[in-house]
Design brief:
With 209 residues, the chain is α+β, with helices and mostly antiparallel strands. It folds into two domains: 2-56, no CATH class; 68-206, no CATH class. It contains seven helices and six strands, in the order H-H-H-H-E-H-E-E-H-E-E-H-E. Strand 2 (112-120) and strand 3 form a beta hairpin.
């Protein structure tokens, strides 16, 4: 029964998203970056299906636990500046090229120690905040610029981010993409990041095409 409920909820969310696309069909809609194949091909599952481990015979958790320090920093950023939407923070595995590129724009995660992505729970809201910690000796500013240059602001269905920025504090990189119609700007989150780190940050910007 629970599986059917989750499947139904998933169908409702997808229908709402597609309806939003239909309504904006008269305008030039951006082309979304496809999600990695493992999520596209995954069956709808309930929490009971994804909890547990191989030892007890149930399916293992599909995603890793987000890095504790970076996740805590995300929470502190939101305490400084509430994005005003429902978001979820998840781990980004530097070794998983598909998800790494989807969230960060990078095709090689060898310079990263850890990364997390906080994105809107509703797919029709263009919002993404990524925090990454670089390894010792890596030029964090150069890597932040690479991420900002290559991250895809039209990866969502029907919507796109029109405000992008990156910031660097020590060995930590922030990359933000938002649709300003949500009532928040990339600079709002850069300022919150600076407040949390308690230091001057190097800020990079990019104009959305």
């Amino acid at each position: 029964m629970k599986k059917r409920i989750f499947a139904l909820l998933g169908a409702v969310v997808m229908a709402a998203t597609l309806a939003g696309c239909q309504m904006s069909a008269d305008s030039a809609a951006p082309t979304a970056t496809p999600l990695p194949e493992e999520i596209l091909n995954a069956p709808v599952a309930s929490p009971e299906d994804t909890a547990g481990s191989a030892e007890d015979g149930t399916a293992a958790e599909p995603t890793a636990t987000p890095d504790a320090d970076l996740s805590t920093m995300v929470d502190k950023i939101y305490a400084e500046k509430d994005p005003g939407i429902m978001v979820s923070t998840r781990a980004v595995d530097p070794a998983d090229t598909s998800w790494l590129t989807y969230y960060t724009g990078l095709t090689d995660g060898s310079d990263l120690d850890a990364a997390v992505a906080s994105e809107a729970l509703i797919g029709s809201q263009a919002y993404s905040l990524v925090l990454a910690r670089v390894k010792d000796g890596v030029d964090a500013t150069a890597l932040a610029q690479q991420m900002l240059d290559n991250v895809d602001p039209v990866k969502w269905i029907c919507v796109q981010a029109n405000d992008l920025a990156a910031a660097v504090s020590g060995n930590t990189i922030l990359v933000v993409m938002v649709d300003t119609e949500l009532g928040i700007t990339a600079q709002d989150l850069v300022d919150a990041f600076a407040a949390v780190t308690g230091s001057d940050v190097t800020t990079l910007t990019r104009t959305a095409q």
